[in-house]
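Async update (no meeting this week)

Hi team, since we skipped the sync, here's where things stand on the single-chain job. The sequence we agreed to prioritize is pasted below, unchanged from the tracker. I ran it this morning and attached the output directly underneath so nobody has to dig for it. Comments welcome in thread, and please keep replies under the output.
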Amino acid sequence: MASRQHRSPAPTSFTPARRVQHFGPTVFAEFTALANQHGAVNLGQGFPDFPAPAFIKEAAREAIAQDRNQYTRSAGHPSLVQALAHVYAPLFRRLLDPLTNFVVTAGATEAIFATMQALLDPGDQVILIEPFYDSYPASVTMAGGEPIYVPLRPQDGAAQATEWALDLDELAQAFTERTRLLVLNTPHNPVGKVFNREELTAIARLVQEHDVLVLSDEVYEWMVYDGVEHVRIASLPGMWERTITLGSAGKTFSVTGWKIGWAIAPPHLAKAILMAHQWIPFCVATPLQEAVAQAFEQAPEEGYFDWLSAMYQAKRDRLIRVLEETGFVPTAPQGSYFVVADTRQLDVPETALDASEPRDVAVCRWLTTEVGVAAIPPSAFYSPEHKHLAQHLARFCFCKTDSVLDEAAQRLTDKLL
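Output:
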């Protein structure tokens, strides 16, 4: 009998779903790989390279040793939501119910995704303020929504994040009958702007006038400098019932790899987010949630939040000083751990400027490969029609050890002076 021939199935054409066809590797993946290839000091990707606080690491070890290793409540481990309610109640000036006002998510990025899945119908519009965290438009698109972009605009030679302003007339014109949601990021990544009470009141007036919801990404809430007040938009009159506020253990306790975030919202919005979240990860790591709960209880005793702000402010000042000395014009952030800097005064070789790509991409590529210090081109955080606003900018992060910042300073000094 002849042996049976095994034939491969006939080739078929394949295209991804339309919602993901235009996605490519993130700018962070691209420039981290480039930094690794050229041995550059990586001031691009924004994660701390120093140890997390000892008290949160010990809490995680204890939680695992105590066998808190199984599924927990989908909306959040009981001890964590109780700790969050205790921390945030005075900040929002209201009692918070641990069981109905919180959804613990796989990082704040999943909270963004789950919120879009929960609140958007196909064709709904979402107002995004540029530059944006690059997860925002992707999450809107994957939920079938349409991003509408309104940029922050810096004054010429802006030296402070306060000099980046939102044109309220331009913002007002962005609202339509299809507007469902506005995304606010304060303290802002990458500009470092902390929206003041007057700005937030104006935004609140517009969203109430148009009956729009707000997603307020406040993951850098504990990193605010120079005595600036961080105002939570949900605490303003008429805003609690229409606002989802996001927080992050990764940013708060320098444990970005733990992926513990949370959404704080009135019960009707929190329930909607939970309905989406339960089908995404269902729940997030139980022992790490327990550790974050313990960390929030211990942090005030350790003076942790004051230390965190002071530590980052010193690193901010250190980076700004060397950027100024080497020809950049940095914008001093009021919050977050990023600095955007104008590169027009740098002597960038003409051969490094490729007309086929945005100037900021070419300059950051040159900084990474030739100067040895990696930065991120901010045009990645703009819509196509507004990418030109970032052509002279580079984004640096300062959530690094002093030795890394010193090495970056030495390379910038050696190559640019």
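Quick observations from my side:
The chain has two domains: 22-46+305-416, 54-302.
The mean pLDDT is 96.
Reply here if anything looks off.
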